[in-house]
Design a protein that fits this description.
The chain is of the alpha/beta class. The protein has a domain at 11-145 and 242-351: Alpha/Beta hydrolase fold, catalytic domain (Rossmann fold). Helix content is 30%, strand content 18%. The strands form 4 sheets. The chain has an 8-stranded mixed beta sheet with strand order 1-2-4-3-5-6-13-14, with helices on both faces. A two-stranded antiparallel sheet has the order 7-8. Strands 9-10 form a two-stranded parallel ribbon. Helix 2 packs across helix 3.
Length: 352
């Protein structure tokens, strides 16, 4: 039985591959496979309603990524960027007998979609990135070309995560007692635009609480730095893996991919996690005075996450690919939960 109860019509199973035993949710009986990839501090549970709403010609699969949910608890080698996740997912497709798939990724899962295209473009029929992290990585970079603010990428990686938030996940905390770090408060404040609260709030909170916690898991290790804010990425865990120190080199491989599946980019206009003024970015927090010692706009500006993504996709299009950007109004970081009808109206024609 999965840790989080599933909706009727969703099948839960463990699938062994040479790399890892992966917990996978699936639905539908159609011939065209769609792979749904969740983001950080969540699991495949987040995709269930979307999976069930797909037309009959599709079959949906949503794995719990390494480090999350009910998938085998193996460490993430952050020095490979998204490499562990990419190889896990390709191994899963092999085990399922799937040659080509439509890939849909949310937040960190969007970063993984970029990396799937960079690594195995011929296996991706189309890519959909939903509120994706910048292809250059999360935190620690500036400008539309994603140049690191410092050579050691200080200000990104596991050291910038709120340690109390991770501790409360480990404790299974379901309260709203800590206004800055309670998982429920963080979820309802930032995953969607308040005052929206999803009908499956309790299941989605349970999903968040399945993240694997520890110095080599989430939030990961860190390296002391002489550069502000005095922490740089370590070598383990998901937040280090999406640091520009390790994941940023995939941008050139994405742009130069031999096959170029069409990309749909969907985001909310009120996203507080991934934006050009993200409340999870040290550049933004320093500029607002919440983190002391900010070295200023020239050295460490807020990361233009949306602008960086658009610039990369424009390069992809100039190199022979294509993309479409859809912005949903009055919507936060999770459009497929906040505005499911509008989300599907964009997604289904893209998959077709």
């Amino acid at each position: 039985m999965p840790t989080v109860p599933t909706l009727p019509g969703i099948t839960s199973q463990l699938i062994a591959t040479p790399r890892i035993t992966t917990h996978v949710l699936s639905s539908g009986t159609g011939a065209t496979p769609v792979l749904f990839i969740h983001g950080n501090a969540s699991s495949a549970t987040f995709w269930e309603a979307t999976m069930l709403a797909l037309p009959a010609q599709f079959r949906a699969y949503a794995p719990d990524l390494r480090g999350y949910g009910d998938t085998e608890d193996l460490l993430i080698d952050a020095t490979r960027g998204a490499g562990d996740w990419v190889d896990d997912l390709l191994g899963l497709l092999d085990a399922l007998g799937i040659d080509q798939v439509h890939a849909v990724g949310h937040s960190m899962g969007g970063t993984i979609v970029f990396n799937l295209v960079a690594s195995a473009p011929h296996r991706i029929l189309s890519g959909t990135v939903v509120a994706p992290g910048s292809p250059h990585g999360f935190g620690g970079s500036k400008g539309l070309d994603g140049v690191p603010c410092y050579p050691d990428c200080a200000g990104s990686g596991g050291g910038v995560v709120n340690a109390t938030f991770a501790q409360l996940i480990a404790a299974g905390d379901r309260s709203s007692d800590n206004p800055q770090a309670s998982p429920r408060v963080v979820m309802n404040s930032f995953y969607w635009k308040p005052p929206f609260v999803p009908a499956r709030e309790e299941d989605l909170l349970s999903s968040l609480l399945t993240e694997k916690i520890g110095p080599e898991r989430y939030p990961g290790d860190m390296t002391p730095s002489g550069n502000w804010p005095h922490v740089a990425p370590g070598a383990f865990g998901p937040i280090n893996a999406i640091s520009p120190k390790y994941v940023g080199d995939s941008v050139e491989r994405f742009v130069a991919a031999a096959a170029k599946p069409p990309v749909l980019w969907i985001r909310g206009d009120a996203d507080a996690i991934v934006s050009d003024a993200s409340f999870f970015d040290l550049g933004t927090l320093g500029k607002l005075g919440y983190v002391p010692g900010w070295p200023g706009e020239d050295v460490y500006p807020p990361q233009p996450m949306v602008g960086q993504t658009r610039a990369v996709l424009e390069r992809y299009a100039a190199a022979g690919g294509s993309f479409r950007e859809v912005v949903l109004g009055d919507c936060g970081h999770t459009p497929f939960i906040e505005q499911p009808d509008a989300f599907l109206a964009a997604l289904v024609p893209h998959l077709g």
